[in-house]
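Hi team,

As requested, here is the filled-out complex form for the tetrahydrodeoxyuridine run. I kept the field names the same as last time so the parser does not choke. Let me know if anything looks off before we queue the next batch.

— J.
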Amino acid sequence: MTRDPSSLLAAAISARRAAYAPYSHFTVGASVISRDGKMFTGANVENASYGLSMCAERIAIYSAVSAGVRALEAIAVAGPEGVTVTPCGACRQVINEVNAGMKVIFSKAGQIKIESISALLPEAFAPSTLADAAPSSRSAPVR
Ligand code: THU
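And here is what came back:
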């Protein structure tokens, strides 16, 4: 958790061992923690149909959410040793969806870094953006 970012990062590093990345050979692990201390992990899972591959971060988040745990406060991500890996753009969008105040933990030049998702995804398109549209300005669904 944000109170102990190094143990959340350690969990991401061990989760990485489960990665299935036969195409990119770039293995990633992630771990998320909820406000009440529940942790979920993920590793990237690729597919022969490349576009179906899924990032470690989204697997960790969807695992938490599908277990009924949505109050997530921090996510750690770890890639190959010595490589600074931060969440890709799609994962930033998903992180912002669960908590616009999420802390993102990663390693950079041997140091633990903690960034807020709002710094990594400024001016985000968010659930509140949809709520800002008046019902009359939304077009009818296609039938
Ligand atoms: N990947 C992740 O799992 N998380 C990231 O933050 C960046 C990219 C995965 C997707 C793909 O399986 C491989 O890394 C190379 O892009």
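Two things worth flagging: The helical segments are 5-15, 56-66, 89-98, 117-120, 127-132. Residues 5-15 form the longest helix (11 residues).

Thanks,
J.
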